[in-house]
Amino acid sequence: MSQSKKKKIVVVGGGTGTHTLLRGLKRYADKLDITAIVTMADSGGSTGRLRDEFGQLPVGDARMALVALSADVDSHDELLRELFLYRFSKGKGLNGHNFGNLLLTALTDILGSEVAAIDAASRILRVRGRVVPVTTDNVNLQATYDDGLVVVGEHEIDEPPESRHTSRITKLSLTPSATINPVATTAITEADMIILGPGDLYTSILANCVVDGFVDALLDSKAKLVYICNLMSRLGQTVGMQASEHVAEISRYTKRTPDFILINNSSFPDDLLARYAEEGNHPIENDCTGESGILVCSDLVSTEAVATIAGDVLKRSLIRHDSDKLASALLQIFD
């Protein structure tokens, strides 16, 4: 990759997957101009509670991206990162809340907008890149299923009852409709590479793509479009779907076929696979033929154990991508 000019790279998503990828890309911030565009439809956990109580936009996905891109030069930086990730495990009213979410809520109240709060937090954390909300409109995610049922709310879609674990989403939308943040439009149209994922197909990735103006910006962009396929299925969203169906959904909603598709080709620990199987989940198999983009197949799995955080009530992935492996694979596409 040329050293003369930074490549503009845009990561679209939210949650743990985006956090993982940004951590890896940050190591190359001297070569990359990084922008994270994050969903504003979250309605679960600490974020959802604060959204309901304060009437502000959800800040959880922005917080995760900020922490991923934060400076990590010394112990002071590390303490700030730990503070933004700290989750209360006791205390009436505080139990389950994330300190970073509380701080962003307070900054929004002080500064008058979520965008200003994110910018202020970026300065506090000395972020190497930018975090941009995909929209500044207050919206909810809405899913229509193959049996005609309509469910409103990201949390309700992400944590479905057992009776809907194998249901398929036939249409994803926002209610009410939302308009893309102009800063996000500029980032997309000026990008050299746009990365979708990793993350839950509907609630983390496509939740951004259904914002009015997102697809238009993507079609106007000359950037290489990269899709990072999830490792495991998600109950109520992608059970029964393999890689080619994920790619087809990306193409259907974005009206662009990914130029590159990153798919893991390594195995997973048997004990973790057994735990996923007990819930009804399965690995995403690579059944792509190469007709929908250039396949990049590599070992992308993290070998680090996933630690459970006290006070966290949401279900988290046990099998995750590796930050450095993802970043390395993406930089090779630039070469």
Automatic annotation (TrEMBL):
Show the GO cellular component annotation of the record. cytoplasm
The UniProt entry, under Pfam families, shows: CofD
What CDD domains does its record include?
A: YvcK_like
Cited InterPro entries: CofD (IPR002882), CofD-like_dom_sf (IPR038136), Gluconeogen_factor (IPR010119)
Establish whether keyword Cytoplasm is in the entry: yes
Keyword Cytoplasm listed: yes
UniProt keyword list: Cytoplasm
- Spell out the molecular function terms from Gene Ontology: LPPG:FO 2-phospho-L-lactate transferase activity
Localization recorded for this chain is: Cytoplasm
Q: Which domain of life is it from?
A: Bacteria
GO biological process, alphabetically ordered = regulation of cell shape
What is the documented function of this protein? Answer: Required for morphogenesis under gluconeogenic growth conditions.
Q: Which family does it belong to?
A: Belongs to the gluconeogenesis factor family.
- This chain's protein is named Putative gluconeogenesis factor
- Source organism per UniProt: Candidatus Kaiserbacteria bacterium RIFOXYD1_FULL_42_15
